[in-house]
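Re: your question from the hallway

Yes, I did run it. Sequences:
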Amino acid sequence: MRIALDGMGGDFAPVETVKGAVEAVKAYGVEVTITGPEEIIRAELEKYTYDKSKIDILDAREVISLNESPVMAIRRKKDSSLRRAMDLVKEGKAQAVVSAGSTGALLAGGLLVIGRVKGVDRAALAALMPGKNGHFMIIDLGANAEVKPQNLVEFAKMGTVYFQAIQGVESPQVGLVNIGAEEEKGNELTKAAYQLLKEESGIRFIGNVEPREVSDGDVEILVCDGFTGNVILKMYEGVVKNLMAMIKEAMMSTTRGKLGGLLVKPSLKAFMKNHDYKEEGGACLLGVDGIVVKAHGTSDARAFMNAIRQGKRFHESGYLEKFKEKMEAGNFPVA
Amino acid sequence: MRIALDGMGGDFAPVETVKGAVEAVKAYGVEVTITGPEEIIRAELEKYTYDKSKIDILDAREVISLNESPVMAIRRKKDSSLRRAMDLVKEGKAQAVVSAGSTGALLAGGLLVIGRVKGVDRAALAALMPGKNGHFMIIDLGANAEVKPQNLVEFAKMGTVYFQAIQGVESPQVGLVNIGAEEEKGNELTKAAYQLLKEESGIRFIGNVEPREVSDGDVEILVCDGFTGNVILKMYEGVVKNLMAMIKEAMMSTTRGKLGGLLVKPSLKAFMKNHDYKEEGGACLLGVDGIVVKAHGTSDARAFMNAIRQGKRFHESGYLEKFKEKMEAGNFPVA
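Structure:
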């Protein structure tokens, strides 16, 4: 399979994008087309030895910046690295696009260039995150600041097929992120969505999940509007970051703590690696008629490798075909 | 000053409520009226030696459970321990009410028994939380699942007076919790609220704050709807709890880690104590014409002590008078 990699997306492009592509080709046997100014990408590629038949460059002279209107940028900058990568998937020349560029532009590209799956009203961003007892997926992480109750049912379906196809979980649980466990709790959106989710036969809805339980990882799929999902994602990031820094500071404040800190360091490092959601390969845009992987803006080569692996797993799992089939049949039977 | 303590509120009432009252009387010199079935409260009180002139009992035969409608319960159960405590404040016989009972009933009691400050449309729950660089306050933590943009301006005013009167910060910063730093980001509520907050002269609005930065503690007051605030509070709790458990597990998985764990234990314990938001004495209901402190449902005697201390600080700071004065003058000058 071939990955279309936006060579200029992300804070450390093109150095890390190209390095990640080279390593992914070696590790996963994929083929990669890197989009971007040919001479720049080529200069980076020349630093490495690799199977030249596996990586090619698609020249793209424009770059989409983080400050411009995503929709306008995708429409007008037809020669941008992101747009070119999207076009490759649209034209069937690549099977997945990977980009660490602006989330807004990626979303606009997914909707305007690739298009939604028939029957899907809203595409959504989702990511697999590490929890205490297992991985969980929040849908939507921020593609839609406002949604209708029905959209949360769509998100539940997308997540269900994701876990079935990619994680091998036949009957994943779906929870509604809410500020109380009882059915009648929450705001207008969650109250209405609860009723729709309860009536939907093709998903395994287990009721409300309070944010206190989200990171337990007991419930695989957590649906919410994109505002709430983004708040959850960013709170998770912020609290983990600050807590680790504060714990380190607390340990370093005493001699005894310093010594202990040296001893626990390898365990903590291993822990941080196991619980780094960047290891999961970024977020994916679900509901569009192609595989779109959003790598973190600060991605290094390793993160790009993981994002490419994620695109590969998506493709090989047959996720998209399974999702489309079920959407067309209007049928989401749970095993 | 006298505290009205709901003797039957919370998971560990009346054992821990009464113990907390006895210790608070010794530590802070306050007077406490404990509401609840007289013989039950008296039996608890008899376990301790204390200045008998400082604690009395107000007999209340009913208890509000967590399952009943808060509004109905407050209206009908006039002889409940919570309602009796609220009445004491309403009648001026106590200067603050403290309860670990149902948040809904506390809110209903605050609104229906004590009433809002003139000019306030919505009362809100707020709590001081420990951040990396300082304490921050989120308003609203869950009193209002839906709000209007104007309500976030009210919350900003309540928080501003809180920091001025109680924390001694003359010109506290106000941030709008949002999923992007730029003015145009967010949902309909945050976009409209941004414009109102920007135009409000009596507060120091610094723009959007992303949830990633909330726990930094650099911005004192964070305003949001109650759904979002509750998500933030519960994510914070959940991630801290799970992360500490996972770190412990990671350390215990190796012999080296176990030894290090023993050495860092005192530092971590001190850290957890310093960063336990329960130490702050619970949440407070702002915007009502009386001091209402909500202790955590799982409060022990120490947490009740802290909640009583919080009520005392509120009263002595003159918060309520200052807030009412400014609301009446329609004037919130920032120093």
